[in-house]
Design goal:
alpha+beta; six-stranded antiparallel β-sheet; 4 helices
């Protein structure tokens, strides 16, 4: 019985530590909720493209061109990878460069430089600005 009484789990923390840690947990939770809401709100305001309308592909842009992402026609894994870099529908991007045979593109999205293969760039529909 004395083992349980003396364990760390049964000892009480000072009140200021309890309030501070609770505050940071709640603050982090509200920041996450706010970020999710803003992301949802941004995605909700972007008009969905028409079904029959085939836009310009990212692979058709040249160095220095700016565009907005309209649609990403890719499998789930590629969409998640692109989203982790910040490539979401409605984001503005700029083509910084491309290889000689245009096999790879260097794209700037919100300050992040992303290298894409031609096959991946072909799956991204954009609207030139």
């Amino acid at each position: 019985m004395s083992f349980y009484k003396d364990s760390v789990a049964t000892q009480r923390l000072p009140p200021f530590l309890t309030l501070t840690s609770s505050f940071f947990i709640l603050h982090s939770y509200f920041l996450l909720l706010n970020y999710c809401f803003l992301l949802y709100q941004k995605r909700a305001t972007i008009p969905a493209p028409k079904q029959g309308d085939q836009g310009m592909k990212l692979s058709q842009l040249h160095k220095g061109d700016k565009a907005v992402i309209v649609r990403i026609n890719a499998d789930k894994a590629l969409k998640e990878r692109l989203a982790s870099f910040g490539m979401l529908r409605g984001e503005e991007l700029e083509v910084k460069g491309c290889s000689v045979g245009k096999q790879t593109l260097e794209v700037d999205v919100d300050g992040t430089l992303i290298a894409l293969r031609a096959e991946e760039a072909e799956k991204i529909e954009v609207e030139k600005i």
